[in-house]
Amino acid sequence: MRIIIATLGAAAALAAGVGLLIVNTGMFNVSTSWEDPALVRWALITTRENSIKSRAAYIETPMTTGAKQVDEGFRSYREMCAVCHTPPGAIDSPITKGLNPVPPDLAESAEHMSSAELFWAIKNGIRMTGMPGWGITHKDKEMWDIVAFLKTLPDMKKEDYEAMGKRLEGGHSHSGGGHEGGHGDTAEPHSDAGSGHAHGGDEHPHDDDVEDMDFSDMEI
Fold first, then answer.
1. Residue 12: other Cβ atoms inside 10 A
2. Which of 24, 128, 152, 173, CA to CA, is 20 to 30 A from 89?
């Protein structure tokens, strides 16, 4: 038992020494251009996912209030999220390209994360990723609106996204995450941009269809 205790103590002292060496000598490269080793990347991603999941487990998810909520969520997404999280069919902005870790595709996130997990991440942010905690400056309702919109992203194509923007902007659409065709790729988020609701298969609602849809039983 004494040998085991001594071995564990020596291992802990060695780990502490290595940690102090890395901290004090600047050995660790904090540059975003340095790609994390596979083991470090796995550790960071796993820690992040488990942290979000455990804290979101106690959040009660409200029902969506309908197409208007999705519209409001799209407006907030364009203003707060699109500059980093590239919209459907758009090209990455310079900010997106310069971040490490790379901001996730929110269409994929909306498929494998629960609504409560998305809400928690939006509200609280994620350390050392560039993801801010919007709960400091925005109300819970605004963040649930974004979640409602994000849940439509997996079925959304570029044409759907642009049609939503045109409907709520009065005919003028911006990609939010960049421009195609050689006009630059700088994101231009707009607070007055918006969205309709596109969901399911190859059929997507157009301007006159959205208001007639029944969202009363839809879960975020």
1. 10
2. 128
pLDDT of residue 143: 97
Are 173 and 196 within 8 A, CB to CB? no
- 152, 198 Cβ separation under 8 angstroms: yes
- pLDDT-based confidence at residue 149 (cuts at 50, 70, 90): very high
Closest CA to 220 of 145, 155, 160: 145
The token pair that represents 210 in the structure block: 């959205």
Percent pLDDT > 70 in the chain is: 77
Q: CA angle 64-69-180, nearest 5°?
A: 125
pTM, to two decimals: 0.71
> Is the bond into 104 cis (omega within 30 degrees of 0)?
no
Chain mean position to CA 182: 27
Q: Which residues of 33-52 are buried (b: 16+ CB within 10 A; e: fewer)?
A: eeeeeeeeeeeeeeebeeeb
The residue type found at 190 is: H
